[in-house]
Design a protein that fits this description.
- The structure is a single chain.
- By secondary structure, the protein is of the alpha/beta class.
- The chain has a single domain, classed as 4-Layer Sandwich (Metallo-beta-lactamase, Chain A).
- Helix 1 links the parallel strand 4 and strand 5.
- Helix 5 packs antiparallel against helix 6 and helix 6 packs across helix 8.
- Bound molecules: zinc ion.
- Zinc ion binds next to loops.
């Protein structure tokens, strides 16, 4: 499958993007997400925890270091392994909060995704050794506001990439953690039938309405609100491209080929183009009301 650099969170790259908000950045390695640590006077909230036990331990170590005895909270932007499967390091030490749907999605699909990721690469398999899927200890529906002491944080359900996506917004600092609803210069991932193009585009509109000053995407560089527009434009372009071809009654195979070519040409600088066929197939299924038939994931060596 992919060729991997070991997907390890690198604590030495930690940086404070605004007062009391730390990002452990994606070091440009697949399966290392951007991770956030928000520090209040009473409590510290960690946003996502990395892939597997070792990454979870690293993130936990950093959180403990900055928390200096304050209450620890963990939330996850969605259930995917590199965002949520390090949670066992926090178990018993932090309150784990997520929306109800995300918890259900983890319960339903967690074991499947664990095996899927283990099969990707031996390095990933090692990192996912002895992983325990940890369910949220506290759940909410719709929206939850947390006061960390001088830092207000809004958790909000916003599906698109998965059924249980959640954004994390700091209204005062205007910092937005998007999870994989946004990836910077990486093609959007429609991994299974629960990704939904139209909902995703609407989710982007909701995020743009928040007019964040800083956008921390699931993967890729920290950015501004411009990235939200750019990502929304991309999704709209893919949907329009598929829609036009559906209306012309093109065969799916042709849409696969021609659609992918045109999307790739327009977004030459964007990486992880192996996900383009997944986006096309997902949007095709939505627009035609037919069952989703996902392509096989192309191996990076074949690209
Ligand atoms: Zn994801």
């Amino acid at each position: 499958m992919f060729q991997f650099n070991a997907p390890l969170v690198q604590l030495e790259l930690a940086r404070e993007i605004t007062s009391g908000v730390i990002v452990l950045p994606d070091p440009h390695i697949n399966l290392v997400p951007n991770i956030g640590i928000v520090i209040g006077t009473d409590a510290v909230l960690v946003v996502d925890c990395g892939l597997g036990r070792e990454n979870g331990k690293r993130v936990f170590q950093k959180a403990v270091e900055v928390a200096r005895g304050k209450t620890l909270l963990l939330t996850t932007t969605h259930f995917h392994p590199e965002h949520a499967f390090g949670a066992q390091a926090f178990k018993g030490h932090a309150t784990i909060i997520a929306n109800t749907t995300q918890g259900e999605e983890l319960r339903e699909k967690g074991a499947f995704y664990l095996n899927l990721f283990r099969d990707m690469d031996p390095v990933v398999k090692d990192l996912l050794e002895d992983v325990e899927l940890v369910m949220p200890g506290e759940t909410y529906q719709g929206e939850k506001v947390i006061d960390l002491g001088g830092k207000r944080v809004v958790l909000r359900e916003l599906a698109g990439h998965t059924r249980g996506d959640q954004i994390v917004f700091l209204p005062h600092e205007r910092v937005l953690f998007t999870g994989d609803l946004v990836e910077n210069r990486l093609f959007p991932i429609f991994p299974d039938q629960d990704a939904h193009g139209t909902q995703w585009i609407a989710a982007l509109a909701r995020m743009i309405d928040l007019s964040p000053a800083t956008v921390v995407p699931g993967h890729g560089e920290v950015a501004t609100v411009e990235l939200l527009r750019e990502f929304q434009d991309l999704l709209i372009f893919v949907r329009e491209e598929v829609n036009r071809r559906v209306k012309e009654e093109q065969a799916l195979e042709l849409i696969d080929q021609e659609g992918a070519r045109i999307i790739k040409e327009r977004y030459l600088e964007w990486e992880n183009d192996m996900w383009i066929p997944f986006a096309i197939r997902n949007i095709y299924a939505e627009l035609t009301g037919t069952p989703l038939a996902l392509p096989a994931l192309r191996k990076s060596r074949e690209q």
